[in-house]
Design brief:
Elements (H helix, E strand, L loop, with lengths): L7 H24 L3 H91 L5
Length: 130
């Protein structure tokens, strides 16, 4: 199979070059990704992004629920503070009315007593019967 007219060195060099090309071509083919492998990787990446998106939505909903629960707690505390404030104002009004009513009653009672004494004294002075 060898050409007797070809110099032996050339044939060896050509053979080595062809063997090197075959090895390089085989290495490239080994690294080549098939369409099936690429499609499978694409699905895996798409699924991963879908999972991440779902996780983000779940996290967002959980944070919104926490924020709503916190808002409700704040509203409850505000309602309790408002009710306590109204109760305190009602107590203050009650005590004010009690004190003022007592003072007014005392003044009117004293005035009434003084008026009765004045009328009695005036009737004695005018010669009237008691």
């Amino acid at each position: 199979m060898s050409d007797p007219s070809a110099p032996p060195g050339w044939f060896g060099i050509l053979r080595e070059d062809i063997a090197g090309l075959r090895a390089e071509f085989s290495a490239r083919l080994d690294r080549l990704v098939t369409q099936d492998a690429f499609a499978a990787e694409q699905r895996r990446v798409d699924d991963k992004f879908a999972d991440l998106g779902s996780d983000i939505v779940t996290e967002r909903e959980a944070r919104m629920a926490d924020a709503q629960a916190l808002r409700k707690q704040i509203d409850d505390v505000d309602d309790k503070a408002e009710a306590a404030s109204k109760a305190a104002a009602s107590r203050r009004t009650w005590w004010f009315r009690l004190v003022v009513g007592g003072i007014v009653t005392a003044i009117l009672g004293t005035f009434g007593t003084l008026l009765a004494l004045y009328i009695q004294a005036a009737s004695h002075l005018n010669g009237g019967a008691p």
